[in-house]
Amino acid sequence: MCGIMAYVGEQSAFPILMEGLKKLEYRGYDSAGVAVMSDELRLLKKSGKVNNLEKYAPDDITIGTLGIGHTRWATHGAASDLNAHPHQSMSGRYTLVHNGIIENAAPLKEMMLKHGIVFKSETDTEVLVQLIEWYQMRFQLETQMAVQRALEYIEGSFAIVLFDLHTPDQLFVIRRGSPLVIGIGDDEYIISSDPMPIAPHTDQLIYLEEDILGVFKKGTAPSFVDAQEEMVEQTIEYLSHTYEDVMKEGYDSYMLKEINEQPARIAHMLDRHMGGRANDELLDRLPTIISDIDRIIILGCGSSRHSGLVAEYLMETYARISVEVEYASEFRYKNAMIGPKDLIIGISQSGETADTIAALKIASSSGATTIGIVNGVNSTIARMVDHVLYLHMGQEIGVASTKAFSAQLTALTLISMRIAEIRKTICQEDTDRMLLDLKNVSEHVKTALECADIIESISLDLLESRSIIFLGRGMLYPIALEGALKLKELSYIHAEGFAAGEMKHGPIALLEERMPVIALVNDDCSLEKLMSNVQEMKARKAMIIVIKSSNVTLSAGVADYIVDMPDCPAFLSPIIQSIPLQLLSYYVAKHKGCDVDQPRHLAKSVTVE
Ligand code: GLU
Fold first, then answer.
1. Are 201 and 7 in contact (CB under 8 A)?
2. Catalytic hit among 2, 451, 568, 594
3. CB neighbours of 563 closer than 8 A, spacing ≥ 6?
4. What is the pLDDT confidence band of residue 241, given thresholds at 50, 70 and 90?
């Protein structure tokens, strides 16, 4: 969610900021801005896309070799030019970009208003920059000290880059809760919320620790101080090859590229984890991790929570262990009863999801063991949990998750099978067979992708729909939830997923003639029941679309459309059946003219709670 890009060095800062901000666009944003220092500070802020900035930039903006840039995802105040970052203190001395949210902005603003401070925007960020100046002026502090003092009073999360007109050749950087990475080049520093925009410049990175203030000046080694003004060191790490520079590779969107790369990516991930080539070793340590565990709690938001719900079915069925799945955003406020015998699994594509981070912090402080399942290498969650399992799927750019979701399902299936093996709840012969089936799942995913043409033709029949229902039972129920979420995210058509058996307890009242009902069918024990539910919808003149394993035979006339998926063991059907649903939401959105990579109002990594 939102992005920061800052530069200090020998080169012209503006093009570097623009290139970096464009690389951060996938995270989702509504406005953008830069401040570049040359003979004077040039400030440029616009609502809308990063490209807008280029249109309005004065020619001589390229002279400056220091600058800060931002893409904003509004939390306080509309997405307007005025609310876009950077923000400045009243005297103009300080200029700042901020990612995150200042929860106590209102009382702080009220306090400063009483002291005559004048605000220009509605943002919480302006409160932060004004507070820094307020401390500086009131106590005549050095900037470093003023920042640390001001931040003592801040509740919420932030990653900030601050520019001080009195020291125009350096940048101040600090974070708490939101990510920030510093690239160390030859005589230059590149600061960003994400390593990707840094990758073209250098492979040396510092993942700044929380509450450590870094000062960066061209030609000088960086300095880091903690809240007590003590000098500290920060570790330099090397950018791994997983941060390839992502291109669309001929596809019309990142989403379609990412959907199509799933077979290869899943095969690669399984090879790493099942072939022992992963660098996270979670699976090796699993016997010790679960040796004294009574219960597993899975935390996630959106699609990540849906993959957790599939894992609940898998783990309870095969590993016979009690599993609860929680919305991370609810878990942190529910006074959960957790303790050392609980294993908490936090799932997050980016590894930066603020709600999941906060929930995991609570879990850790209650003595529970924590596991993170993330795609974002070295992300906040990866660093904070006891054990991490990486999805190794490469950067996901499309805002609505596709490959990261199927990877989460695959990883959770693998973990479930391993727990079953360790707990000996299924016989070794069955475990071996299931693990072998899992190893081949990428082949089934590849076959599933062949349904693209039929899905595209079905999508044309859905463009005018006002509402679409997704149904599943058992482990396909969470996939129905995911299908509905994906469709609404991308096409803005209202969609709901239901456990098929629940329809007659209320939602069936929604049915209108030709309302699309998409039923997910595999050949598990609930097949008959699910088909009865579908018949009930058909009797009420719904348009029935059945997505089914090819070994399931349907009675004639029950469905308007049938999409066959490869015949595979039922425990793999959540992975397989999520493929046609991704394609469906892609095609519906595309034919409705929606932006499939950057749906409205959404952000890729949700770094505010
Ligand atoms: N809370 C700040 C704002 O609304 C920053 C949001 C962001 O992270 O982009 O301006």
1. no
2. 2
3. 451, 454, 455, 458, 545, 546, 547, 548, 580
4. very low
Distance from the CA of 102 to the center of ligand 1, in angstroms?
9
C-alpha 388 to ligand 1 mean position (Å): 29
Ligand 1 atom with least separation from CA of 2: 9
**Mean pLDDT score, 21-26:** 89
Ligand 1 atom having least distance to the Cα of 102: 1
CA distances 29 to 47, 353, 375, 492, Å, are 9, 16, 21, 18
Q: Is the CB of 124 under 6 A from ligand 1?
A: yes
Lowest mean per-residue pLDDT among 76-80, 236-240, 360-364: 236-240
- The whole model's pTM is what? 0.76
Q: Is 74 in the pocket of ligand 1 (CB under 6 A)?
A: yes
Tens digit of each residue's pLDDT (9 = 90 or more) over 118-151: 999 999 999 999 999 999 999 999 999 999 999 9
Number of Cβ within 10 Å of residue 432's Cβ equals: 12
Token pair recorded at residue 273: 């984890």
147 Cβ neighbours under 8 A, 6+ residues apart:
132, 162, 172, 174, 213
Ligand 1 within 6 A of CB of 75: yes
Alpha-carbon distance values, 430 to 74, 418, 426, 427, 526 (Å) = 51, 12, 6, 5, 21
**Distance (Å, whole) CA 179 – CA 177:** 7
Is 46 an annotated catalytic residue? no
Q: Count CB neighbours of 307 within 10 A.
A: 32
Phi, psi of 409 (to 5 degrees): -60, -45
- Please tell me the number of Cα atoms within 13 Å of 388 on its side-chain side: 23
Residues 6+ apart with CB under 8 A from 499: 471, 472, 473, 477, 480
CA of 602 to the centre of ligand 1 (A): 14
Catalytic residue among 49, 486, 548, 604: 604
**Per this entry, what is the length of the chain?**
609
CA of 72 to the centre of ligand 1 (A): 6
Q: Is 594 a catalytic residue?
A: no
For residue 481, count other CB atoms closer than 10 A to its CB.
Answer: 23
Ligand 1 near 73 CB (within 6 A)? yes
Q: Which residues contact 260 (CB under 8 A, 6 or more apart)?
A: 251, 449
Q: Which of helix, strand or coil describes residue 311?
A: helix
Q: What is the pLDDT of residues 330-363, one digit of tens each?
A: 998 898 899 999 999 999 999 999 999 999 999 9
User: Which of the 8 DSSP states describes residue 177?
Assistant: B
Tell me, what DSSP letter sits at residue 542? P
**Separation between Cα atoms, residue 28 and residue 22, nearest integer Å:** 11
Transcribe 144-160 into DSSP letters.
Answer: HHHHHHHHHT--EEEEE
